[in-house]
Structures are given as structure tokens and as C-alpha cells.
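Researcher: I'd like a structural prediction for the single chain below. Treat it as a standalone chain; there are no partners to consider.
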Amino acid sequence: MSAAALEDRCNRLRQPVTELVATSLGAAYRPQDLPTLRTAIAAVREILAEDPSELPEGALRAWLPTGLRNLDRMDEALDAGDAAKSYAILTDKTDGFFQLTIGCAGFVGWATA
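Model: Treating it as a single chain, here is the predicted structure.
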């Protein structure tokens, strides 16, 4: 387990998560953005689903299963035609992607702790 592995994971998540947030908001108002949102969800899922064994115990590692469930729930909402619900899942104040921000706090492009 290493801080370097955490930094690497956070660095690789930064751009895909930024795209996910922007596309998710857009898709709530622009149905034509749904295919791009699905691509963004898949890109983030690919990184979140990587083996966490090298990550140190902490906020990111603890949140990974929740993050993956959130992405599944976002896909389900999109399948049901509810892009606004998908965005609400992403931004949920308890389990949403702000938890990822906490887990990556202090690394380049992420908020400080």
C-alpha cells in the first residue's frame, strides 16, 4: 500500500471525473449528450474498478465500492430516461462523488483537505 499508488489513481481520475461531472450536468438538460455521458461513466468505472490492494486505507479506498454502485445507479437512471436523477446520484451529499474529492484531497487538481 502506498501513497504513490493513491496519487497515481487520483491523477488518472481527475480528467475523466471532470468530464463526468460536466457531461452529467449537460445531459440533464440536453438528451443528445446521453451517449457522451455513458462514455464518461464507463471511463470512470474502468479506473474505479482497478484492484485497490495497492491503495492505502483511507477515504478513497473506503468509497470505491460506493462509487462503483453510484455509476451503476447512474446507468440505471439513464436507462429509465432520467438524466436528472443520474446527476442527483453523482452529486449526492452523502455518497456522491464529493467523497472522491475527499479521498484525493491535496493532490494536483483536487481540493485541499
